[in-house]
């Protein structure tokens, strides 16, 4: 009898161990490969596992070019990660493809999200439900080369604040060789980079327009304001001759090489520019128009929970998502990646606002717009082609603008079908 | 195989041993087919099944995320009404019709003269062959920098030294395609040279000796002996490089990554259009329709070439 009791005790012990092991949940987290982001996430995971010893998080990364395809393929194969990172612009595709599940209203109340986060987070909301939350957000600013400013007799501590000032500074800093070839640009022109956003969400508005209507379902830039904005942009190359599309291949490459006095780029470029050794650079808000109107474009990568995750994995995933979108996580992210916190409380601290680098980006967030893309690369291509038609084929700007508006409308209509 | 077996049965004098030998023979055949079957099954599965599947997908609206719906010929209708497709179609044939003859003539001329050089021949041949071994993307990136305007572009720098004005190269609607094509030709020519040289070596020297004794000039020897006897090599290279130019992708994609296939689609080949439809817009059905079109073109071009250059 005693023997049986002992056996039972052993069995119970084994069962107990098994049960406690079942509590150790492992969830998988996917993001795209970018060194500082991976380092930051590793730090967050360590901290999260410290706080939740029963949950392990495994991070997997893929090169950016493959990342979206991997997510889609993983869903098709039934092997989605529990928590995934996604660009806000992919949400429509991912939500309609049932890649994500909406966040539970109990754990992530909408009212609270809207109170605590910057308004751009509503881009993750569909039919009243949130599908993900960001850790960090990004906005644009004007980077300028202090050395080139000084050489041109400009005050490196007083960067241009209006579009007119910007053109003046660009004219002062642009350099040409004897045969008129540009050897250093006043400002970079790179529609494939961030200029597409500058044109759409900033210049069009500054010339009195509104680039889209009806919740970004109607293209609205084919008007006088759009035309002025396009002429202003292409005019930088054709009339003012302060920049050239394709100069040094990419705008950011020209700036890094010290061969461009100004470039418009995002927070995510801070990491790459911080390694510049041979000159000092500064950051300022995107220039205002003559009436003082400013605008900006903000975007972000959010973290969402895959469709089909349930039970204790869902609970663990929710805990993890809650942690990575907490103030503590945002502080770590800002220090490691340089991207701005998505919560007002974490972002708008005195220290951050006074920071000569983060300050201009943070101020930009206040008046930023977030384009709701249906197919980001196809829509970007429309802007690239619009400018190319004017610059390479001498097409009249109004015709090119109309063609672009029609093409982009077709892309949107097709996606909404 | 059967005829071999029957002869053995007839020839074999002693019944018992012949049955054993027959079994050996059958066994050998079975073994051979057994070994062959695995790759055949595998090959059909990875090659023909996806091909057939692509045909089926081209009639659907599959977007990778939702179940495919059968939509008949809609994808093809959309494709043939898409001006971009016709631009891409034209580009693809420009790559083919300019690339194949230019690269082959170039390769033949080099091979013909290199064949006569004895000094450092191996070294020179290796130099020509080197680009073929390099990754297409790495090469494309180097060329991309060559084509830049001053102050970094090497070619424009040279032009400037000679007082010639800068050329836009890959930033021009007219010059971009030839610029890309040049890198593709440069990359593939080493392989063609090596094959041509092997073909030239295979022509018996006695023909040349006889021709020279008969007093034939070099030009006549080339026309009457070298070129006709080199025909199998030429056919192989024409088919091989045509398929290569019809499927051009790496060079274009890497030289124009900021504006893939640009500017204004002036360099975009069919494969890049397929890639974009499939993996950046997720229009799998549409991409499959384009793939079917490409497949058909490849098939027709290959068949025509084999027919034209067949042995009489």
UniProtKB/TrEMBL annotation, chain A:
Any idea which UniProt keywords this protein has?
Plasmid, Signal, Transport
Give the range the annotation lists for the signal sequence.
Answer: 1-24
Task: Report the protein name in the record.
Answer: ABC transporter substrate-binding protein
Q: Which Pfam families match?
A: SBP_bac_1
Family matches, as PANTHER family: MALTOSE-BINDING PERIPLASMIC PROTEIN, MALTOSE_MALTODEXTRIN-BINDING PERIPLASMIC PROTEIN
For this chain, the family text in UniProt reads: Belongs to the bacterial solute-binding protein 1 family.
